[in-house]
Design brief:
The chain has 209 residues and is α+β, with helices and mostly antiparallel strands. The protein is built from 7 helices and 5 strands. Helix 2 packs across helix 5 (109-121).
């Protein structure tokens, strides 16, 4: 049943990460940004959005990682993290491993937007980055859970500008009932659910007009 599968996944997760503070000391869980209209207005100002475009996100977990926790995370996940500090932790689930997992998340808008949102409400103090923890389930209940991890560094200024510009234009297209066609047909089908790397890097010719 679904309940048994969920319990099996939870048991597998807790067996792999038994420490309640494994990802650091929690600062916020299921953090909704913005939480109110005043924060929304401050958010748009901080991001340089001058029209009525709304941006929001719900962050799974925000933690502060000390030196000991940093070493523990790096040892168990193999991630190369920049140092102690604040991190966005995003948990994902999947039925199978994906060898392009790190590439997709480093070129996806969500982990970058999460960092931008958190930085904007933290008086410009950006987090050290985002850690994506992917729990891989299996159809056979007797198989152990496995995991994939990747680190997404803070977006560069070029990436930030590209993401804000794309979001504003997508909102404009939605208000005008126009189709948002930023995903170029040259992108392989498996990558069309993420933002094109050329857009993220600010190289998209289609967005310059």
């Amino acid at each position: 049943s679904l309940d048994k599968k969920a319990q099996h996944m939870w048991d597998g997760y807790m067996a792999h990460f038994p420490e309640v503070d494994f990802w650091g000391s929690p600062l916020a869980v299921e953090l909704q940004i913005p939480a109110d209209d005043d924060t929304a207005a401050r958010l748009r100002t901080a991001l340089g959005i001058t029209d009525e475009t709304q941006v929001s996100g719900r962050l799974d977990l925000v933690t502060v990682v000390d030196q000991w926790q940093l070493r523990r995370i790096q040892t168990r996940t193999g991630l190369d993290l920049p140092g102690p500090g604040v991190y966005v932790i995003d948990h994902k689930t999947s039925g199978q491993r994906d060898e392009s997992f790190a590439f997709k998340h480093n070129n996806a808008p969500q982990p970058h937007w999460y960092q931008m949102l958190l930085g904007a409400i933290s008086h410009g103090k950006a987090p050290c980055g985002a850690i994506i923890n992917r729990v891989i389930g299996h159809s056979q209940m007797d198989m152990p859970r496995s995991f994939q991890h990747c680190f997404v560094p803070p977006p560069t200024e070029v990436m930030r500008a590209a993401l804000v510009r794309q979001t504003v234009r997508a909102a404009e297209a939605a208000r005008a009932d126009q189709k948002n066609v930023f995903a170029c047909t040259q992108i392989p089908a498996g990558f069309r659910t993420i933002v094109c790397p050329h857009l993220i890097a600010g190289r998209c010719e289609g967005m310059k007009a």
